[in-house]
Design goal:
Layout lengths: L1 H34 L6 E4 L4 E7 L3 E7 L2 E6 L3 E5 L1 H9 L25 H4 L40
Antiparallel strand pairs: 1-2, 1-5, 2-3, 3-4
Amino acid sequence: MNLVTLLPFIVLIGAMFLMTRSAKKKQQAAAQMRDHMAPGTGVRTIGGMYATVKEIGDDTVTLEVAPGVHAIYAKNSIGAVLEDAEYNRIVHGAGDDLTIDTPVVPDDASSLTLDKDADKDADKPEGEAPKLDLGKKDEPEADEPKDEPKNGKADGEAGTK
């Protein structure tokens, strides 16, 4: 009877031992992976950001997240150290050749709008800009009454009694 009551505790202790052992192996593998980092290698953070390693400190790593933009991260925040080919494929979208065939976004928003009036503006002189319709109504004509106060007094006049 003593063996039956102790059996669940023995199984529980064995399961905890196996779980801590596998967690310890994962920690060692992650530490080993971080030791293979060197300046210039591509990494992915645990948040999913891809960057290039610039400097490595004791507990921190400086990453270049965009050209000329550096950020300091904890070493523990590095989720994976990537091979050069894989990093270039993910970040640049290219295989062995690093030519980028995607269109370049212009600095202004002129190409982002549809040019519906291109045919209409073709006959205008080059220096003249097309007229924009901002949805405003034209000024009321002279024969139309303007909005006046209902009491016949102009704004700001004091009433008399």
